[in-house]
Amino acid sequence: MITVQFNADLESLTKMMLYISEQTKLDDLPSKTKNHIELAIEEALVNIINYAYSSEKVGRLDIQCLRDDKKIKFILKDWGKPFDPTKESKKPNFDLSIEERPIGGLGIHLLRSLMDDVHYRREDDANILELRKNL
Question: What is the 3-state secondary structure (H, E, C) of the chain?
Fold first, then answer.
């Protein structure tokens, strides 16, 4: 299993997404599935970049990809503030207008909607987020 390391900053986001795109191109995936994976991963990466580390510290973000005939799984690992997105239970209220909705909360909903499994654990002072899509 290969781990690719990045700085956890917005300047590195393009490189991270190129890596994600390369991993999804290796499989014969429908473009809709690729788009769902890439959108979900990008949302998770932006959240880690924006919230895991204090604003004056650039941290590290590791990405791993595991594939077999039945699934593709991305593992995102950072050493920032603990945060378990799977514990967030509030679902966005889509009946409200955009002006009435509170800011935030859509990213976690998006992860859950686009991926088949979202799993979090805290291990050795690291946040480990696993995102799986069935093929």
Answer: CCEEEEECCHHHHHHHHHHHHHHHHCCCCCHHHHHHHHHHHHHHHHHHHHHCCCCCCCCEEEEEEEECCCEEEEEEEECCCCCCHHHCCCCCCCCCCCCCCCCCCHHHHHHHHHCCEEEEEEECCEEEEEEEEEC
